[in-house]
Specification:
Number of strands: 7
Strand order of the largest sheet: 5-4-3-6-7
Number of helices: 18
Helix content: 40-55%
Largest sheet: 5 strands, mixed
Structural class: alpha/beta
Order of helices and strands: HHEEHHHHEEEHEHEHHHHHHHHHH
């Protein structure tokens, strides 16, 4: 029995069909500039229509592979053809209508085609909407930046209204922020934890940034509250620990100087954490207490003291500045003395100057927060705290895309070693103090009694 050959469309007929789909007539005498301006929409229309034909052929080919050719008798088939139904595929940021073939399973239910599922995946639309929103395109202007797909398809395509774009953005960012807040941290070799807070429309959001042992930066969490208080910080840190943050051998925490941050770190990490306060925040705070001229002079002196490679000498100079301010500016002196020892944590560890300058301020996390503020600056109406957290989380993820390793990352191994050594000494000292207290004569007398 000879195999029946399928009819082949002649070349001339194929060309005519292509021109019909494209909706254009090519003039051979047309110069390049005229050709470019005249076929732009037609070429896109041709490509889009041709793409829809390819999708239709793929679905038909998959259905034929699953249940056999149309009209052929097959007793082993798992489903039977059942005409077609209206469907849609993702095309140029919209949903374009297409007829999809249907098949009913022998045991009941409709047969699902993988090819149709791929081309109709809504995640493509959500990702595109998110990228454009983060790039600064307003929901009402998305229709102006869509890819051209031809006039015929433009009239029947759907899904480019501002409400549809907004729903996709909310859905996509909610999913991504949820992934951010549930990242597994147990596999990260954490060396430094930075914490800072920001205010959005009356809502305080505290964010956390990890710096790994190789110098890479990873945003790991955010927590909302009325203020940057100890409870909020404690809950944020407890959540990080629950997700696997490793700190038992030692971790360096860099904060802006807030007492609530320091108290929260102490409650969660105890003696396992070394605290480095931001020297830039301290310098700004002191300058705000002083007249302009005196503030400028004091700021230069503090800059030299905080950057002194000899931590003892720098601390001594800073204390001397506080003593000079005591008489005429007592509030400035008290502010300078508060947490002064923690301004020199990195210098006491004897680390290279470049690495100390990178980590003795919260510039890195403030830069990340700046990205959040830029992205959310276009929001005109904040509905609730959930919306605030969603935008902040989207900003953290957007900032992460441009992260680079910190300056001085080649010396991170020195930091890890120094922090672990310092923490180990603290724990040994603490154990010795406990042992000494337990072994006092008074305790022996009480036990005997």
């Amino acid at each position: 029995m000879t195999k029946k050959k399928l009819p082949v469309m002649p070349a001339q007929k194929r060309d005519e069909e292509a021109k019909r789909l494209a909706g254009l007539t090519v003039n051979p005498t047309m110069d390049l500039s005229e050709l470019s301006s005249s076929i732009r929409d037609g070429l896109m229309a041709f490509c889009c229509n041709a793409g829809l034909l390819v999708v239709a052929e793929m679905m038909e080919a998959e259905l034929t592979e699953l249940i056999g050719p149309k009209g052929a008798h097959n007793v082993e088939r798992i489903a039977s053809r059942n005409g077609s139904a209206s469907g849609s595929v993702i095309l140029g940021g919209r949903r374009a209508p297409i007829a999809r073939p249907r098949a009913t399973r022998s045991e009941g239910g409709e047969l699902t085609l993988d090819s149709y599922a791929v081309f109709t995946n809504a995640d493509l639309l959500s990702e595109l909407a998110t990228e454009r929103m983060l790039a600064g395109v307003a929901t009402r202007r998305h229709v102006l930046v869509q890819d051209p797909i031809g006039e015929e398809l433009e009239q029947v395509a759907k899904g480019d209204s501002k409400s549809a774009i907004s729903r996709r953005f909310v859905s996509a960012t909610t999913k991504k922020v949820d992934e951010l807040l549930h990242r597994d941290l147990s596999g990260l070799d954490t060396a430094v934890l930075m914490i800072d807070g920001m205010i959005f429309e009356g809502t305080c959001v505290v964010v956390a940034l990890l710096i790994l042992a190789d110098g890479a930066k990873v945003p790991v969490g955010l927590w909302d509250g009325d203020t940057e208080n100890t409870v909020v910080v404690r809950d944020l840190l407890a959540d990080l620990v629950e997700r696997g943050l490793r700190y038992e051998t030692g971790i360096l925490c860099v904060i802006d100087g807030g007492k609530a941050l320091a108290a929260g770190i102490k409650r969660v990490f105890g003696r396992h954490a070394l605290v480095q306060r931001c020297v830039l925040h301290k310098r700004r705070n002191i300058s705000d207490y002083l007249p302009k001229d005196l503030g400028a002079i004091t700021d230069r002196q503090l800059k030299v003291a905080f950057n002194d490679e000899d931590a003892k000498r720098g601390l001594r100079v800073a204390k001397g500045i506080a003593k000079r301010l005591e008489a005429d500016h007592p509030s400035a002196a008290r502010s300078l003395r508060e947490g002064l020892d923690e301004m020199f944590t990195l210098r006491r560890l004897g680390l290279p100057d470049l690495l100390c300058r990178s980590l003795n301020s919260t510039n890195m996390i403030e830069s990340m927060i700046g990205t959040c503020k830029v992205l959310s600056g276009r929001v005109k109406r904040w509905r609730d705290t959930k919306m605030v957290c969603r935008w902040v989380g989207a900003g953290l993820l957007e900032a992460e895309r441009s992260f680079r390793r910190i300056k001085g990352y080649k010396h991170m191994d020195l930091l890890v070693t120094a922090v672990r050594k310092e923490v180990a000494q603290r724990l040994v000292k603490e154990q010795e103090e406990i042992t000494t207290t337990t072994d006092t004569p008074d305790n022996y007398d009480q036990a005997a009694a």
